[in-house]
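Notebook p. 47: complex prediction with flavin-adenine dinucleotide.
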Amino acid sequence: MTIGIWVLGDQLWAGQSALQSRIQQNQQTPVIFIESLHHAQQLPYHLQKLVLVWSAMRHFAEELRQAGWPVTYTQAVDFQTPLIDWIEQHQISELRVMTPTDRPFAQLIRKLELPCSLTLFTNNRFVWDEEDFKQWASSRKRLVMEDFYREGRRRFNILMVGDQPAGGRWNFDRENRKPPKGKLTLPEALWFEPDTITQAVIDWVKQSEAFKASQTYWDTEPFRWGVTRQQALQVLQFFVQTRLSDFGPYQDAMVTGEQTMWHAMLSPYLNLGLLHPLEVLEAAEQAYTENQSEWELSSVEGFVRQILGWREYMHGIYCYMDADYPERNWFSHTQPLPTFYWTTETPMNCLHQVLSQVKELGYAHHIQRLMILNNFALIAGISPQELEDWFHAAFIDAYDWVMQTNVIGMGQFADGGLIASKPYAASANYIKNMSDYCKKCVYNPRARTGENACPFNFFYWDFLARHYDKLKNNHRMGQILRNLERLAPEELQQIRLQASEWRTQQLNSPS
Ligand code: FAD
Ligand code: SF4
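Predicted complex, structure tokens below:
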């Protein structure tokens, strides 16, 4: 009886459960990696995402080979054909796979017609076990992230002093919302030069007919992401040493040309499995312990909340929700996604800046994603599903599990408030305060109507007015809706007219 292991593209870690189950017999355990062309063509993915995943797979396959595993690495149209060939060639009687994080992929695997048995191992890539999350969630009326986060701090003993939170408070969020005023000295980011393996993938995706659509939208070079666990660990160390102590204050700030600010840049590596979230948390906590006298706890707590709070919560919710979750559309928004999300060509400077950065890098930080890209789509009434597809194609760290909860739930409020307690909708006022984008924009961030009124303004008030009845029972919307009620009826009428005209002329115009 031969046991074989199929390693998926986001499970690139020797500690993953399927590999661990045969670590003692590794030389007798054939392992397969498959690059499927069909899978990579489901959406016009960012070319750097394809390079990142495939180069990281090729590097990891090589590492396993050197550790003595008999590795087969193959490129094919689909998954089934090379799997069957390999199973027959090695006379494999049991195929082991770590359960995929993404639901559609788990379904794909279960539907494969294979000439051997299939064993799915528990996914051990997250801090919280899926079953533990379900147990936590099923005992609660509301799935509030802050409750979950506190439970995680207690359960995994992170930033705790006995049974109390370090510093006497669970949450230092209020200290972490500084606007980028004055001269800021920003830290460098850690990037890498492509090696020969990475360069071979770059050369292929850049010219292959298979990726024509992607080639029109995204830049492949310069490609500067890490592709091995060693490089991912370097990014983690670099972050902890040079950025973590100041992570908090400007977490929400946006500055033209500054692509990463104090952010960790760890999501691509965490999501590929090159890093485990627990080791990231432990590295952050250890650095804090060593530098307690100089570092603000608010920065470290803010970072821990991202990983142990938001990331784990989003994954838990994804597993907990029904299969219809991605189809939800609470506001019934149906506008098509504007072409400028793909081309970057819009006079709205904030959108243009962030979209150009995504084209160049496949990355934008959280507030750029939430309050620029997502906010505009929400207030303009874009279909959440079209937006989700775009995010999924555009981002280097995008996967089904993290996309649904962030775009459908947090971003678009399309689940009616399961994840967010109120919609993340904002006018130009927020963007003017938290960025320098408005300074170089053709629109006036103060104007709500008129020729150069900022579209974020008329869409914002139009959004509130359109959905007044749906929003009025949300207690967090009370003050905001009172502001809406204070608008003169003539002004509101003008705002709504301008929103409607803009929608017809600009959002629905062909590219
Ligand atoms: P930092 O700001 O330094 O945060 C540290 C880490 O916290 C991140 O690496 C990430 O692993 C984790 N984290 C923080 N918030 C979240 C969250 N809401 N969900 C999951 N992890 C979180 N994250 C992705 O990993 N992939 C995505 O495709 C993705 N799409 C998003 C789309 C929208 C509309 C929004 C609002 C958020 C999205 N996020 C996504 C969450 C978050 O924006 C990114 O994880 C973060 O910007 C990654 O950059 P960083 O590593 O520099 O993060
Ligand atoms: Fe964006 Fe409006 Fe500011 Fe221009 S004025 S950068 S469109 S918020």
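Notes: The pocket of flavin-adenine dinucleotide (ligand 1) is lined by residues 263-267, 270-271, 306-307, 310-311, 314, 365-366, 369-370, 374, 391, 395, 397-398, 402-403, 406-407, 410-411 (CB under 6 Å). The beta strands are 2-6, 31-36, 71-76, 92-98, 117-121, 160-161, 164-165.
Next step: compare against the earlier run before touching the bench.
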